[in-house]
Amino acid sequence: MIIVMKTGASQLQIDGIEKFLKEHGFGVHISVGTERTIIGAIGDERELAVSPLEVMSGVDKVMPVVETYKLASRNFKPETTVIKVKGQEIGSDKLAIMAGPCSVESPEQILDTALYLKSQGANFLRGGAYKPRTSPYAFQGLEEEGFRMLAQAGQEAGMPVISEVVSPVSLEQALKYVDIVQVGTRNMQNFHLLKEIGKLKIPVLLKRGLASTIEEWLNAAEHIMSGGNYNVMLCERGIRTFEVATRFTLDLSAVPLIKELSHLPVFVDPSHGTGKSKLVAPMSRAAIAAGADGLMIEVHPNPKEALSDGPQSLDFKAFNCLMDDITKIAGIVGKKIQI
Amino acid sequence: MIIVMKTGASQLQIDGIEKFLKEHGFGVHISVGTERTIIGAIGDERELAVSPLEVMSGVDKVMPVVETYKLASRNFKPETTVIKVKGQEIGSDKLAIMAGPCSVESPEQILDTALYLKSQGANFLRGGAYKPRTSPYAFQGLEEEGFRMLAQAGQEAGMPVISEVVSPVSLEQALKYVDIVQVGTRNMQNFHLLKEIGKLKIPVLLKRGLASTIEEWLNAAEHIMSGGNYNVMLCERGIRTFEVATRFTLDLSAVPLIKELSHLPVFVDPSHGTGKSKLVAPMSRAAIAAGADGLMIEVHPNPKEALSDGPQSLDFKAFNCLMDDITKIAGIVGKKIQI
Amino acid sequence: MIIVMKTGASQLQIDGIEKFLKEHGFGVHISVGTERTIIGAIGDERELAVSPLEVMSGVDKVMPVVETYKLASRNFKPETTVIKVKGQEIGSDKLAIMAGPCSVESPEQILDTALYLKSQGANFLRGGAYKPRTSPYAFQGLEEEGFRMLAQAGQEAGMPVISEVVSPVSLEQALKYVDIVQVGTRNMQNFHLLKEIGKLKIPVLLKRGLASTIEEWLNAAEHIMSGGNYNVMLCERGIRTFEVATRFTLDLSAVPLIKELSHLPVFVDPSHGTGKSKLVAPMSRAAIAAGADGLMIEVHPNPKEALSDGPQSLDFKAFNCLMDDITKIAGIVGKKIQI
Amino acid sequence: MIIVMKTGASQLQIDGIEKFLKEHGFGVHISVGTERTIIGAIGDERELAVSPLEVMSGVDKVMPVVETYKLASRNFKPETTVIKVKGQEIGSDKLAIMAGPCSVESPEQILDTALYLKSQGANFLRGGAYKPRTSPYAFQGLEEEGFRMLAQAGQEAGMPVISEVVSPVSLEQALKYVDIVQVGTRNMQNFHLLKEIGKLKIPVLLKRGLASTIEEWLNAAEHIMSGGNYNVMLCERGIRTFEVATRFTLDLSAVPLIKELSHLPVFVDPSHGTGKSKLVAPMSRAAIAAGADGLMIEVHPNPKEALSDGPQSLDFKAFNCLMDDITKIAGIVGKKIQI
Prior knowledge:
The structure is a homotetramer.
Chain A: E1 2-5, H1 11-23, E2 27-32, E3 37-42, E4 59-63, E5 83-85, E6 88-90, E7 94-100, H2 107-120, E8 124-126, H3 144-157, E9 161-165, H4 168-177, E10 180-183, H5 191-198, E11 204-207, H6 214-225, E12 232-236, H7 254-261, E13 266-268, H8 270-274, H9 277-290, E14 294-298, H10 316-332, E15 336-337
Parallel strand pairs in A: 7-8, 7-14, 7-15, 8-9, 9-10, 10-11, 11-12, 12-13, 13-14
Antiparallel strand pairs in A: 1-3, 1-4, 2-3, 5-6
């Protein structure tokens, strides 16, 4: 941690900071610059987070030097994490393609979709049972009944299933039915929920908050991991910016950047990220080309009858074309579709 | 709701939309423009939210005409909402000044602060017991013990108390101790929590999500109100933008805008909104000048020893000066400090 | 254009709007809805831009129906624009790879770079002579001398050259030396400069403003095109968002979206877009996979001695690897490297 | 400047940085931390801006310690700058109220407005002659003719006048007619224009770029000041964020923050900042309460006939009410209206 003193800070103020740091067990290096004095604090700065050095007399700013997260960091664990779920791998050279409808609507809808997706090379089935919706008057999902239909379809199609949890109750239910739980963008900093998941071993896909920095996102992963659950995968799904032509702005540069900063697998969700079905295929190709470990894609047998998020869902035919392209690009970046 | 067809949409496509709308009980007006055909759907468009008109053949875009929220809207309830809590008013011509430390740390800290604040004209005591923190290694609050200390201090000082809830468990505890529950920025779209609060009658202060539009914010209020709890107040606390010189960007224009759109009381939190104690006083003055119904301000007896958010807390002396200015500005905008 | 009246607007107010529209030559359709009245104005709404309907009595909001740009729109010109420059094509199935140093520094630096790039398949040479820099104390470019060195190197290597112009003077100079002028992100809405370029026939690469919507960007192109210069190509170079881990957020979804909205060629600049040399290769692959017509990449023989933007420049070896991958991905999306 | 080395950087790499810094005349302090080594460079870091330390082997990040601007900084010049224009002061305890129409439309329109504004306490007349407009088909201003009408009206009303310049040609014309030139938001980083103004002595109002950080804004002022023109005033006019309910987000916290960082006068433009005439009065009150030195407000005798920006213009009556409130708030923050 580096403490930059104000121009003209007094020796008394500098001494005060030095004393404070030493009392907290830090080594101290002082550099007297041409305009300002800089104090380096040597020790584990994560332990100093509660001490508001910034309000101490004479201090201009405090600059952290190391990442605020640890278990999620590649500095801490250099080898890439691979998560295995019912024989499928996530994070290895095999791509994980998670697809399915935004919402589970009926046993037929989800099973038909599952069987089709499986035949096209998707290896995880997604489907929402609890749907966080901006308006209280919009369709909120089938809840436990939705989990059950999803699990049933996954079993018949031979695909592990993933679904979103939004509360302790939905988490408890989900554990009976799903193979991976998903934490959605609006709950990325629902720390209570993250801690509950941290106590378990179930794999979790943590979507990026729509206005979360990459550092906050990795800290959210740390909330789960610090509880003992290391089976965390991340999913970029678009951030909120000033641009209104797309629903969100898909931040694909997050993919190679996280690959440097962290050992966790990274997914991309081009359906929510763009909000437009026509952009899903090009952005899926781009995501794989950028190095993503997998995709999460909304597919619906009949998007115009979907109870949620129809405008961004692919129909079966469009998904078919997309998989063809993905398969080819995978080879170029050293990945493959797993059967 | 207005449906704009693509340039060159066929009569068949236009007929398809018309048929769909009529089947859903809407009246239909069709305008054939010079470049495009526009279809007006007449009826309650909130009921059409689940029907993805946007993916229907020939449709370019769908534009809603009315607000997506209803109970929170001033069109629905023109008179301003006034909430009464233990003899104090919120939303009337009397300002509600909520002040206190970011975190409750000890019985002495919170009581000393309460007595001082009361003597300066603050009429609500705030203090955090559950603290959502970016890092899992930062101080997370005293939990139920914190609620208890806060309630005790509020009782001794004669001030109603407010504290944040983050989960069903913390909500249940809070009901035993606090007069107003607060939903923080990171939980503004934790719809599960909002629904739980909607089932109660306890007043709730709903902070704006750090990347939430005003429309999403009013919809979050609607999630609570549609459950039957109309005692909702809103609090602007800074939005996330590209500017890094302040912690967030305090969006004060939200205050007069919400006064137009909604009948709910509006607060401003300049402490979190700026993250810098030096900016708290000028932005408090500005908030009252812009028409806010109240302020939420962090005050700590000794900010440099605070266990959280010290850099943005005022000390007692600074709070004193602030109240002097606020009192004068209140008079200019037709408000007063309540005793 | 659609005019949505306020809830409770009077017949008098509605009549006022109708009268106003008819006086301006518009057809009028009035739909009386359950909550509001909606008025459709039929005619060329671009002509109404100066008339502030929004302030007329009883009006809630005015919603445009057609794009605000015309010549840049694919609705206006469905076939994709192909620009030819000294035998090289831009916008066809052949990729345009523009590469070179951020700043031209010396005849040797730019010639060495040119010869290397040419040997690797780049077909346009870029190099800055006028450098818009945040600080007045940073290196500002070699100005006309830089143009001359660039032109010389381009001629020796057999590559057309492109360089940025920032003012009428630099534009006048550039015309003597370069094949394509570039308008940088900070001048995207320097309308005076755009109009000057509009009077010429020289091809122009228009970078997206760092906080410009896609609609504003296409309108900036319209400023050039409405003057008679149709040789416009667009270049996404990252937008400003809250994320600080990258210099900007590269908005790759702009590529397929603009391909739908406009007939103009689209480039991507992953060097400025990310600000980190390690992200340039993955984001270049992603850009081509998303359908870009070309790339603009900073390459420097020795990035750590570069006078500007070293941290985002590739060295020769890294560019070599990138071209290998790009060549393969091009094939998958129906493009090829031109020789 | 502080150089943070990567975890595991070698002694050779550290030695390399040390050597480089010493060769460039810097003193060097090395702190070996528990996880990383940190190198402090002692000297004028503004001179090192061109040297991309970030790409040197073993370097993780480079953190500047001092501001990148100098002449605009309050550290450099502690006393507040006061600019005098024809007997009116800007930056003193007297408020500068600049008002007038977005565009000059006719001699009568501008003169009527001037006389009215003068009678209400406004002391500067604004009016646009060159209008940067998103669409090339919108009204672009009366150009030199507009300057002439503005100057004439100012003279008759006894008010100094201010108008926007957008290019060298318009600047040259403006010098004949106006007392203060304005650089608009879209030209804040039109460095060529800034440099031309820097060569003169004419006072300049520099609006904040709609996506410019405060640091970039102060650097734009530095571009002017480093040429020798110190008569610079700043104007906050709203930044671009995700919120769409207002045209921009008025960042009022910039006012007290700049007062700390810089000695230059600060204005607020609530008309462009909000885009809604109803928000102009509350945000004007808030701006003065936050400590602004002046306001820039759009007033039009008949907003619904305005050729540009009608929706955000006040009519005469609304301006009258606003001045009443402003006058009262001014007293509370130690300012007054000048006659």
